[in-house]
Design goal:
The chain is built from 17 helices and twelve strands. It starts with 8 loop residues before the first helix and ends with a helix. Strands 1-2-3-4-5 form a five-stranded mixed beta sheet. The chain has helices spanning about 10-15, 20-25, 40-55, 100-115, 145-155, 155-170, 185-190, 205-215, 230-240, 250-255, 315-325, 335-350, 355-360, 365-370, 385-395, 405-420, 425-460; strands at about 60-70, 75-85, 85-90, 120-130, 140-145, 245, 265-270, 285-295, 300-305, 330-335, 365, 375. About 35% of the residues are buried. Helix 1 packs across helix 2 (about 20-25), helix 3 packs across helix 16 and helix 16 packs antiparallel against helix 17 (about 425-460). The mean pLDDT is about 95. The chain is globular and about 80 Å long.
Length: about 450
Amino acid sequence: MRKRTRLTKSLFQTGLACPKRLWWEVHEPEAPELAPDAQTQWMFRQGQEVTTAAQPRVPSARYEATLQTEQLHARVDILEPLGDGAHVLIEVKGSNEIKIEHKWDVAFQRHVAAEAGVDVARTEVMYLNRDCRHPALDTLFLRTDVSDDIAPLTVQVPALVAKFAAILEGPLPGDSRNAKCGECPFYDRCWPQERFSVSRFYRMKWSDKLDLERAGVARFADVPESKKLSSIQRRQRESAYAGALVLEPTLRDALEEWTRPFVFLDFETVSFAIPRFADTTPWTKIPVQYSAHREEGTGHRHVYFLAEDGDDPRRALAESLVEHCAGDGAVVTYHSSFEKSCLRGLADAVPELNARLMQIHDRVVDLEPMVAHHLYHPDFNGSFSLKVVLPTLCPDVSYDDLAIADGSTAQLELARLLYGPGTVPSAERAALRAALLAYCELDTWAMVALDKRLRELAASSG
């Protein structure tokens, strides 16, 4: 291991996921892929709040205690003294369940404690209680003894530490792609990015992609007919043969099933690890903004809502929504499970509007499967995300000139605008509101444009 590099619990977890990622994180710490995106920043902030909230639950303990040796470093969230020099090591997590990676965290810390001469009699994970409801936050945390669970992991830690040290002392490791690749910031470095590469197959297991590569099958068009593919994957292969859009004749009938007039709807939400509003639980999604484009005559009317302050916005938003989405026509979304979950949450939060909100819920239809199940363009690159589909099918509609251009940044900025931690100056507040309104409005206008384009394609297919 390089002299200045101590293995931390974060680097240890990275090593478990992928040796090559570990090497890059240590040898290329300024790599652009490691710059935290908006979602990472938000999760980090929430994690800090959870750790701070956990500390008073364990009085007379050491908080964020640093344990280290020449090669190892661990910052323990809570180290609770038991007397006679023994301690309880407590790892605090902003999750509402205990995951295997949490147990590995604790196992690594226990090993570092032993190496540093700290007596740990018991290890625990302190995590969020999914059944806790605001305002009864006295039940926010659960504590679970994981000493027995981590015992078989702890005995593996010394060998893994030696393995990771050797990796960091050596050259860049070879191919180590695995099921964790989708979570890795260096994904594009390891997986071929050519648009017809088998790595672009939609929802194909990573192991199947590697099997194809190792058999010499690098591109869609090279996949033998005997290989079992989903209908979407077969369409991807066909697009490689054609080098162009592949369109199914079923698109027209599928689109005709929707009832007009349409309302194109999109929500923006924030979610807090520690509940803020009545009857919410950890990580409840709180709708704070929506945009809707309503079909009226031969055009569309844009309507919207954006919360004004840090109070609970759900009632005001729900009242606005039921007014603007009244009617019987389809409520058009993209990736409808999100909008439907928001509507169900609002219906629970505002019981007197439950029936009207659920009537909107039951009218929801989804553009995403319209695209995924009926067409494929080579420029989709294996994804049906709106941010990929839109520039391919509707190149005149672009987010490029917006101050806020993606959902993760919108969530972060909504939280900053409405919920602190500090007060946003008035001039910046006005600019931020305008940017958020423009982003959400374009999300629904993008669906208007996409729906129109799909109907043009369906008509042209005969």
